[in-house]
Amino acid sequence: MPNWPRSSNSATRIVLRFLLAALVFVLGVDAPGSSSVESEAHAAETKRKPRKPKKKRSVRAPRKKSGGKRDKRVKRGGKRVKRGDKRGKRGDKRGKRGDKRGKRGDKRGKRGDKHVKRGKRGRKKGRQHSYVYTVRVRKGDTLARIAKRYKVRVADLRRWNRIRGNRVRIGQKLTITSRVAMKIRRARIYVVQRGDTLARIAKRLRTTVKELRRHNRIRRHLRIGQRLRYYSDGPTAPALSIGRPSRGHLVNGEQLPPGYGYIVRNPEKSYGTNKTISHIIHCVRMIKRRFRRAPKVVIGNLSRKGGGRLRPHKSHQSGRDVDIAYYYRGNDGTCKLKVVTPKTLDVRITWALMHCFLRTRDVKTMFVDYGLQKPLYQIARRYYRRRQISTLFQYPNGRGRDATIKHAPGHNHHFHVRFKCPRGNRGCVD
């Protein structure tokens, strides 16, 4: 037994020894000293059983409902849930998960990552087409009014056209890129006939009497043969030329309307792009204004309504080709698709029409018979320098030379004009 310290009370010493002996008997341990016995007793009391590691919960396979329908939780993250699958990071390649709020995808395609950014809800919007317009400033126009009309910003107008400040001059051409399709306004001419009045003409042309008076400065009565200028609206959806002239098609093609100074030979084959139609109307009107006694000219084939193969032509498929008859002497008031020689060709009027097309800077190629290029070349020398005219005509350097006006067989009764791709027209190939 250990040596206990002496105590004045012998009864206390006896009680302590009795308790120690009882403790040793109960535990069955022979402790060498009181300190070790007490520490072991304390450890036995405070010792706890180690915690068992928690088992990872498993996802139960969904039960089939009545009627053979499956539960909504069958698919998660683009994969089918099976019995025993764990709730870890489970994302498909696209990084989308199906829930009631829609599909949400991130750039990395995984869920649970701290650095993952959630994408926008729903599907991505398709590409919006942008339309390019060339606008001529008229009297009363300002940058703010033009920007409001085409739904663009004034700052963008300045940047596109390199304008400083807010001043624009009348007749100045502005390039505008807008996502809104605008109606094309074209200047047209109407010849007054017997029995016409301003009210009847306005109703026929779908305009107003006030507009006719303003554009033509009419104060008194009309006279027979008087030319009235008016504006007509073109289509809202712009025409799109897709592919090549010899292998392509036309979307939202515009039909060439009957007009002043020309006759449409086949209306079913007179569809083209908006620029093609505008250039034909403008240049023929210019001929009638410059040459009062000029006869009407026949406009041949352009393209079908949807483009595509147009026999017997190899081209005329994308709305950028047009056949126009030559002006010739000895006509009966209308120049038809008739074989023309250098002697019968009316060089002045024919070259004026071709020169009008060339001044638009939208002409890609003109096909003219090589025998008819000589008289046209001689009159064109008045308007062009030697360097310019050498790249304009094949004559007199031979048929194999690269030029804007080329020879092609079968073009002795009409000339063929091919325009460039319109600006902003995606899918068009020159």
**Assembly of the depicted chains:** single chain
Which structural class do you get from the secondary structure elements? Answer: alpha+beta
Low-confidence stretches: 31-38, 66-76, 89-127
Radius of gyration: 45 Å
Order of helices and strands: HHEEEEEHHEEHHEEEEEEHEEEHEHHEE
Give the CA-CA distance, first to last residue. Answer: 116 Å
Structure in words:
There is one protein chain. The protein is of the alpha+beta class. Among the domains are: 131-178, LysM domain (Membrane-bound Lytic Murein Transglycosylase D, Chain A, Roll), CATH 3.10.350; 183-234, LysM domain (Membrane-bound Lytic Murein Transglycosylase D, Chain A), CATH 3.10.350; 240-419, Muramoyl-pentapeptide Carboxypeptidase, domain 2, CATH 3.30.1380. It is 26% helix and 17% strand. It contains ten helices and 19 strands. It has helices at residues 10-27, 34-46, 143-150, 154-161, 198-205, 209-216, 274-290, 347-359, 370-380, 386-392, and strands at residues 75-76, 79-80, 96-97, 104-105, 131-136, 173-178, 185-191, 227-233, 240-244, 247-251, 254-255, 262-264, 271-272, 296-299, 321-325, 334-335, 363-367, 405-406, 414-419. The strands form eight sheets. It has a four-stranded mixed sheet with strand order 15-19-17-18, with no helix packed on it. Strand 1 (75-76) and strand 2 form a beta hairpin. Helix 7 crosses helix 8 and helix 8 packs across helix 9 (370-380). The radius of gyration is 45 Å and the shape is elongated. Residues 31-38, 66-76 and 89-127 have low confidence and may be disordered.
